């Protein structure tokens, strides 16, 4: 399962960006998704936030596009927050690729600013479905040259009622060659999209135990209501941590525990 970014077949510009970001080795979803998408296969991946899924589809997208006026790749996200986050990550990965820019397009931001940015030209657009359709209808965004589409958090996007917007967009992209579907759960609706719009897709699901999880040991203790503060003190005394965070469920409890630990 282990591979290096170099072995995945990425260009120098992208390897440099990956190095700048301090990524030492590809995460399991990256090992599976990057070669598949690079060879032009469709991919369907079950991956949560934190697994490195953005770079898993972002690196192949950036590898496959070139500078030029037209939008060559589209990433659809369910929320504006995710669109901004994904766009920022892709911009960091694209930093050494000349003439390639990544533009977020989402509802809630004044449309004029997006119009100016679109007029300048972007090669990758990351957007929420409603606003992307809005721009298509105004004629301010053209997707007829887009070859790669990724649906990020597809289950959430379809749950939020964007299914018609998504299919409308996919139907209008005549030159689309690649579709990547990334989702925390592969719901019925996600499978329907995969069935209709993908061909011979590579499944890039990573098993739970292989995911990029922080090294955290979890345990629980059953204690009475009155015994909780003492239980925390006992953990702190016995483990000898330098730092510790305690999460409480109410303001009152937060104050009580703080006073107790200060004492
Ligand atoms: P994501 O699952 O795409 O939201 O990524 C979660 C975080 O992991 C982001 O901050 C990424 O920049 C970071 N990340 C992605 N790939 C790697 C990697 N191979 N090594 C270390 N960090 C990574």
Description:
This protein has 263 residues and is of the alpha/beta class. Helices cover 44% and strands 11% of the residues. The chain contains eleven helices and seven strands. Strands 3-4-2-5-6-1-7 form a seven-stranded parallel sheet, sandwiched between helices. Helix 3 crosses helix 4. It is elongated, with a radius of gyration of 22 Å. It starts with 11 loop residues before the first helix and ends with a helix. The mean pLDDT is 91. The structure holds adenosine monophosphate.
Q: Topology, pairings included?
A:
Blueprint (H helix, E strand, L loop, with lengths): L11 H9 L7 H11 L4 E4 L6 H12 L8 E4 L3 H14 L8 E4 L5 H10 L3 E4 L1 H10 L9 E4 L2 H6 L3 H10 L5 E6 L4 H10 L4 E2 L24 H12 L11 H12 L1
Parallel strand pairs: 1-6, 1-7, 2-4, 2-5, 3-4, 5-6
Helix pairs in contact: 2-3, 3-4
The site of adenosine monophosphate has 13 residues, from α3.
The succession of helices and strands, N to C, reads HHEHEHEHEHEHHEHEHH
Give the overall silhouette: elongated
- Describe the oligomeric state of these chains in a short phrase: single chain
Contiguous uncertain segments of 5+ residues: none
- Share of helix, binned: 40-55%
Say how many strands there are. Answer: 7
Q: Which structural category do the helix and sheet elements fall into?
A: alpha/beta
Give the amount of beta strand, in percent: 5-15%
Small molecules held by this entry:
adenosine monophosphate
Task: Give average pLDDT, whole number.
Answer: 91
Main beta-sheet strand count, sense and barrel state: 7 strands, parallel
How many whole angstroms does the radius of gyration measure?
22 Å
Distinct helical segment count: 11
